[in-house]
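Session log. Operator J.P. requested a structure for one protein chain; no other inputs attached. Running the standard single-chain path with token output.
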Amino acid sequence: MYGSVGRGDSQLTVTVLTVSPAGRRRDPTEGWRIVPETGHREDGAARGVQRVAVIGAGFAGLCMAIRLRRAGIDDFTVYEKADDLGGVWRDNTYPGAGCDVPSILYSYSFAQHGRWSRSFPLQREILTYLRDCAEQYGVTAHLRLGTEITTARYDEDERIWRLRTAAGDEFAARVLVSGVGQLNRPRYPDVPGVRTFTGTAFHSAEWRHDHDLTGRRVAVIGTGPSAVQFVPEIAPKAEKLYVFQRSANWVVPKPDREFGRTARRLRDRIAPIRLALRALTYTRGETVLYWAIRGGRLSRIAEYVSRKHLEKSIPEGELRTKLTPAFPIGCKRILISDDWYPALARDNVELVTEPVSRIIRTGIDTMDGVHRPVDTIIYGTGFLATEFLRPMEVVGRDGVRLHDVWKDGAAAYLGITVPGFPNLFLLYGPGTNLGHNSTIYMIESQAEFFLRRILAGGVHEVSQQRFDRDQERLRASIASSAFDADCNSWYKTADGRVVNNWAMRTLKYRQLTRRG
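Structure written below.
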């Protein structure tokens, strides 16, 4: 072990570099800059400094709050800009909204039950689950709703994070945790004339439930995970429905079913049944689905299943051709649906593959010169997923702005922390989204990583060397996966760099986060 100790005017800095012989446990401080906290923790409350500030009350933020409570830490606040908890499951209330991960896995490992109504949970049921968890684990008292954090600045003298809200209020915390996630800011298409349309227009994440679509001429721009759920719901209502598609997606059958009372009762009362089903579902993701995104034989099998699903649903002809993907499966998120193709085959539905040239007062023009008059436009165009933590301004040591560091694409050590930003931890950060398993598993791994750091005390900052090694490993895994194939996806920045996804097994991720 090689160590160096340097003393400045007001701090003691300890840098530890460890060389571990083969077979020995790695020193958890290797590759970290750790300095003592200033003052005493018991003085923090008196000075208005809380131990932990969490931003966001969705799956990630609530998981962190629950784990803090279970670890005996009560000196924390969860700041949420909306008036309710729930994150993406609070905001996305469009018809048919639900999860494409089975309910048995899309839930906290420490809060399992068997009362889910179906294999793939719907939005309202997931939101109820989150509210129940917040109540059950006593975190509702720690929520500060209607509070948007706009600025987080690291105070190097006090070694604390100073927060400022949109209303001008100020708070301080020793540790800052972001749980804002990746899917919290709707993306609108960059098309001329968007503001000139005189009809009703809205994003699927901001659904206008007061706007009845019955008998209307409706345009849907986008054919991603949201559109594949709401288009089949609205197609029977509309007089005419135009669906504008940039590129066809791989769609596989949805093995969904409703659970009867007896099945729910057995799952809820007999824990071994629940655990076995969860383990089986998780293992399927780590094997079959994992190899489907890695290429090779299973990838070809997955493409075969998807093509057969398309052929069974859509007769041979122009529509089937338009719906046939031109990139490897897994490059974009694989969609699961049994009613997407039948919806597009309806007489009142037209799939448009010509690029949109402009939006005018009465409807949409395409590059081939065709005008389609509509009175409603729905943007199913996803989210600004690669713009992590925006529009919040985050300033670390030496006045460095996080978004300047991320100008070429967001990156963090294990998706959790960044050199130059002490005691800043991210949940569901860059490089941690999945295409084969549940992100809740990743979030729990991140929360445990954070707890080990905070319980050890001090101010923690990952070294540049450790960060660089992690990024090399991540880039190599992405380059050998379907994520890096030639397609446009929400995983990628404008220049084609994949910044959202983890391309290794989640077991590998948990192993790495446990090592620290």
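Operator note: The domain at 194-249+332-379 is CATH 3.50.50.60 (FAD/NAD(P)-binding domain).
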